[in-house]
């Protein structure tokens, strides 16, 4: 568990936060769904070692369309069940999102504070997946649905309970398992 890992959210970038080089210095850089790095390198870096897709985008063939021929990137599908889709892509892992043991444990942990209809976002399911596998996970550019994605003009996503996701993140920050990237990170801090 000594390798460093950072998860890069798709919130709108801040022009005064130039973390590209710092992000690229991590051993593992995780990106989500329709992420873009071109023209955003100085803000969010360009390195990608892990690519996370939600089940809907996977079903639309996004892995096949983007990064074609780049089989060094580890691909993950956050899904309710392993789909019966044939794929010739190497390095694809299916992660049982809201049906996973780790998600159910945290849903039970908060008990009545969670709506029975809560639909967790891809980001929080991914955070839970990697917190279970790494000693410390860094986050950057997550704002829990406050802004549009940095690469398009869509409105912020309103189908998730962002307050619950934020509580989960705060819980892991308090436990020392998550850290928000908000300054330059020394190699021995990672």
How would you describe the overall organization of this protein?
By secondary structure, the chain is an alpha/beta fold. The chain is built from seven helices and seven strands. Strands 5-4-3-2-1-6-7 form a seven-stranded parallel sheet. The radius of gyration is 16 Å and the shape is globular. The model has no long low-confidence stretch (mean pLDDT 79).
What secondary-structure arrangement, pairings included, does this model have?
Elements: E1 5-8, H1 20-24, E2 28-32, H2 41-44, E3 50-54, H3 55-59, H4 62-65, E4 74-79, E5 92-96, H5 101-110, H6 122-131, E6 137-140, H7 162-174, E7 178-180
Parallel strand pairs: 1-2, 1-6, 2-3, 3-4, 4-5, 6-7
């Amino acid at each position: 568990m000594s390798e460093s890992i950072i998860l890069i959210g798709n919130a709108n970038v801040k022009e005064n936060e130039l973390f590209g080089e710092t992000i690229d210095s991590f051993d593992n850089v995780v990106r989500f769904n329709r992420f873009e790095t071109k023209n955003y390198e100085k803000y969010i870096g360009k390195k990608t070692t892990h690519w996370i897709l939600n089940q809907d985008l996977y079903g639309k063939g996004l892995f096949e369309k983007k990064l074609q021929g780049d089989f060094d990137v580890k691909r993950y599908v956050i899904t309710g069940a392993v789909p019966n889709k044939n794929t010739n892509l190497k390095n694809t892992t299916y992660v049982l999102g809201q049906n996973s043991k780790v998600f159910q444990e945290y849903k039970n942990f908060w008990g009545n504070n969670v709506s029975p209809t809560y639909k967790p976002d891809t980001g929080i399911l991914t955070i839970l997946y990697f917190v279970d596998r790494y000693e410390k996970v860094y986050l950057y550019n997550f704002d829990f649905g406050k802004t549009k994605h940095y690469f398009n003009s869509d409105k912020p996503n309103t189908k998730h309970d962002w307050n619950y996701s934020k509580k989960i993140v705060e819980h892991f920050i308090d436990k020392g398992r998550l850290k928000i990237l908000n300054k330059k990170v020394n190699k021995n801090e990672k």
